[in-house]
Amino acid sequence: MAIRKIREIGDSVLNKPCKEVTEMTPRIKTLIQDMLDTMYDAYGVGLAAPQVGILKRIVVIDTTGEDPMVLINPKIIEMSGEQTGSEGCLSVPGKSGTVTRPNYVKATALNENMEAIEVEGTELLARAICHELDHLDGVLYVEKVEGELVSAGSYEDEEEL
Ligand code: ZN
């Protein structure tokens, strides 16, 4: 178990596009395990590789606390509906803001064994998938916030991604 340092807004690694993963290596396996450890340690529900300084297209998500999902080279292939709600990010500590996202998304990806998988989700899971995939393109949610960023804790339902 290893906790990696979470990069924060202002660190240029968060604004760069990530590269696709072409093969699983022991290093990447360790990275994925560390990303899960780091996400749980920070009480986040999602984490993208650039948040720990690695420019690879890998995200981990767990919206329930007992169902970790590893998505490598993820792509959204379907989305519908709309949800507007509070969103936070482990890389923007202490803040949250209102962001509109699709209410349903379906994505394709590879899992940690490099097998093709399809995932779909609504509400928080859909929000998490969109938020984490944005990280892989160097986009932070603060660019999509409607209105002002506020201090975290203003809403009951906010989650850090
Ligand atoms: Zn984030």
Could you characterize what this model shows?
It is a single chain. 19% of the residues lie in helices and 32% in strands. By secondary structure, it is an alpha+beta fold. It has one domain: Peptide Deformylase. The protein is globular and about 45 Å long. The protein starts with 25 loop residues before the first helix and ends in a 10-residue tail after the last strand. It binds zinc ion. Zinc ion binds next to helix 2.
What is this structure, in a nutshell?
The chain is an alpha+beta fold and 161 residues long. The protein has one domain (12-151): Alpha-Beta Complex (Peptide Deformylase). The protein has helices at residues 26-41, 123-136; strands spanning 46-48, 58-61, 69-80, 83-87, 95-101, 104-110, 116-122, 146-151.
Describe how the helices and strands are arranged.
Elements: H1 26-41, E1 46-48, E2 58-61, E3 69-80, E4 83-87, E5 95-101, E6 104-110, E7 116-122, H2 123-136, E8 146-151
Antiparallel strand pairs: 1-2, 2-3, 3-6, 4-5, 5-8, 6-7
Bound molecules: zinc ion.
